[in-house]
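We close this part of the discussion by returning to an individual protein. The encoding preserves chain order, so positions in sequence and tokens coincide. The sequence in question and its structure tokens are set out directly beneath this paragraph:

===
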Amino acid sequence: MADNNRVKISFERSKVNEFRSAKNINPIREIEKYAKGFGATLLKSESTMVLVRVSSDTTDSFITGLTGFVTNLFGVNTTEGLMFITTEEDEHEENESRTEAIAEQPRAERTPEEGAVASPAADHSKITIPDIIEEYDEGEGNDDINTILSDICSNPPIRYSPAMKDYLYELNSAIRGLMSMNAEEILWQQNLLIPINRGFGLTAFIRSICKIYMYYDLVEEQKKKGNDRDKENESEQKAIDYDAMFEEMVIHKVKGEEDDAWATACEKAESFSRANRTERRKIILCFDISEWVDELNVDLVRDSLRIIEKFATSYMCIFRTPYMEEQVLNRIQDQLGEVMAVRRVDVPPIPISNMVDYVKSRTVKYHFSTDNDVDSSIEQWIMRKKKNDYFYGYKALNNMVGEFLYDKALENDRKGNADSKIHTADFDNYLDERSTEDPYEILGNMIGLEQVKKKIREIVAQIRVSKELREKNGEANVPCIHMMFTGSPGTGKTTVARLVARIFKEEGILSKGLFYEIKGRDLCGRYIGDTAPKTAAYCRDAYGSVLFIDEAYSLYVEDSPKDYGHEAIATLLTEMENHRKDFCIIMAGYTDEMHNLIKSNPGFESRVPYEIEFPNYTKEELEDIFWSNMGEGEHDKAVEDAVRKFVSSIGEETLKSKTFSNGRLIRNLYERAWGKAAYRYYTGEDKEVVIRAEDIVTSTEENDFAKMVKGEKEGVGPIGFLS
């Protein structure tokens, strides 16, 4: 009889995935630790199975202890239907020589029965992706390719990209097939074109490819470098340095330096080739060619690509561009394909819902939980950040989480508690002031704008009745709810648009009722073919809500058919039509310019049925706006005369000008005067913050304010005035 037994511990896959999702713990790793602690020998470990060798004398106690360990780990009373255990005598002595012979063979020479072989690529559709899983431990080297792929594809950003996941499983199958034919060198001829926006996972994707190549021993291992003080940390010393196996570089297009940019790229390709002549250490060289997508057919680029192709015989080249229109990407692929074999992996922008999920998962990593109603706040916060051209995908989201949790920790310390739950109120400092007041009441209290208020109520009634009649009569069509707000700056267009979002939500016209504000030119990309996907992404994020496009007229540049605004307009029209049931675009800007925009494309007239004109404020209304900003007891009586005198001094021509900034000017006046009063309080000159008449006079005499009065300079930010 053999002295040892083999014990196979198998788990129901769905139970494992549910546990990983809920607890952020990989139970298979915990079983491995238990086995090692017991003194068992780990023979094999997969995503739902562990095979160990245990002495015959201790097998029963091993199984008994394991059962108790698993029930405690999973928090269950029984392992029935969860864990399955089989034992058999271990005949490893008589099979030792055969095992050693197999182990010495390169993986490429093993037969499917002898080596670890992945399941077919189609199996990845069965993976249940948990909310967040830590990176798996690379030090032990016991994972099979199924576990590696499962872990890779369960973590952002691969988790959110079906295209990336599909390619990784496809690559795994291709490697197995080529190795079975001893044709691995074909792998180095399969270069990639990856259209993906900045910061959304290219580096992580490349690193994942390297992990797969490393699993199949297609490159020489490179261990991470440690210092003498870290020598005791064996797991760190064992970790494979995947980052040393690839390199990314941007081929910049600077006038007068184009030749140097491509010469550097060619030199880099040659250095990769040189590094791989003695031992294969480099896997991927990635070139960002975004700045050259319109000039890939020029001699400089074509000649450089031929040089790169000549050296790229022992590594893969990846070419990165922004995510662009299909026809543009087809052209880029064809032009690259004239020089080298290029496959394409399209990575569309991830939807806002995935970004929200990612932010929440990052907070969970730091042991925070979230209220059920925080999603809309996170979504609005992300959209505000996305308006910045420097929004860098997952890195930006990580920075946001860090900023938020830092502020949360400060707040906890000030209050003397340890609140580990994230609430909607925690986002008040990151979003515009939110009111729980009835939006109709807020609208009604706005100073002036009587015709605007009436029009909004009429539009709501018309949309509701139209939808009800269509539903009653069984008609499929629903009315377009897109609008155009016209008028001078500072007349309340943004404030009213924000209220429309809330009103439409309350009336059941929009499902989410959030408010997203962008400028017209925010929709335009940097390259031909870049604008349409960018515009569509903004619209997609705002489905169920209001997308407010300020200065929308900037999209139409007369006599300039090559301007990217035309692409944005065409995409907007498509989105307006295809998502008319639960999506509202409000375009705003100067009256004449907005009319020119509407006339620029016949599609606007049928898709934008409502126009609301916002008139300039009267002098009396401007005074009222000032006092609506002023709190009780914040001024002396002479201030009223000073304000009245200033408003009276504004000429009628200025008052009616389309560039006059209206209420925005008055708010700016109040903020300047209050700032002067606050300074006196800060320096001890006054015991209270009290605005004086001299503060009003001094503010109006400042040079930049005088320009603002004439319409030469405008203030910044949304505006709304209550009586």
